[in-house]
Amino acid sequence: MLSYPSSMQVSSRCLRMLAEALRGRRTTVRTRWRRLEPGRQALLVLAHLRKGETYRDLADGFGIATSTVYRYLREGLALLAAMAPALDEVIEVARRKAYVVLDGTLLRIDRVGMAGGQDRPFYSGKHKAHGVNEQVIADPAGRLIWVSPALPGARHDLGAAREHGIVDAITTAGITAWADSAYQGGGPAIRVPQRRRRLDPATGRYRPLSANQRAVNTAHARLRGPGERANAQLKAWKILRRIRSCPSRATELVNAIQTLILAG
Fold first, then answer.
1. CA–CA separation, 69 vs 48, rounded Å?
2. Under 8 Å CB-to-CB from 121, ≥6 apart: which residues?
3. Is 155 helix (H, G, I), strand (E, B) or coil?
4. Which of 29, 85, 132, 235 could form a disulfide with 89 if both were Cys (CB 3.0 to 4.6 A apart)?
5. Residue limits of the Transposase Helix-turn-helix domain (predicted)?
């Protein structure tokens, strides 16, 4: 077996936070013996999330069995996911912002059953790929505030936002959210760009937007654009670029990474 030095861009604060959570769990369950100390187990979990390391590679790198890697990862992910904020906590944070940016993103997944059309709910016609739909809320600077639980990738963004209660929550709280045209019809709290005018019966073509409408869309894009940084933050964790676990575990993965991003 060959080995080589490697590094990853994760703050020491995240490592310490997870190590403390693992140490507390071991005290609670009174585990008698472990192959790795909490700090090493935390490093194993972060390597899996940040770099997408396989169970076999982690087992070789940390000198433990593949089955042990599986147990350690499940334990670490469950602890991190439990620390993710709920929507009502996020709304309190969003109240202190001038506005928020609401956007949907697709996390690709390759563990979807193809028999009997089981994959159809996860197939996104927009992205031409299977995945899960995530609703992302960011602040005006593009910093992540919240990521929703995962829904099948075929779900429309506005429908997903309604199902998670995002639309009702921001409307009730009086928060302004800037979003793309997929959220058209979401109510007065969600600002969307000007849409193309209806077909001109004389020419059969869409009537062009006026100069003022184009200027409004340009200003809208400038406000909404930084929200893409939050999506990029999520996908900087390699494990989310293509999820290789059951779709039912996607929410746990996303919540775990959300906790680490918010921890800084």
1. 10
2. 152, 153, 154, 155
3. coil
4. 85
5. 35-84
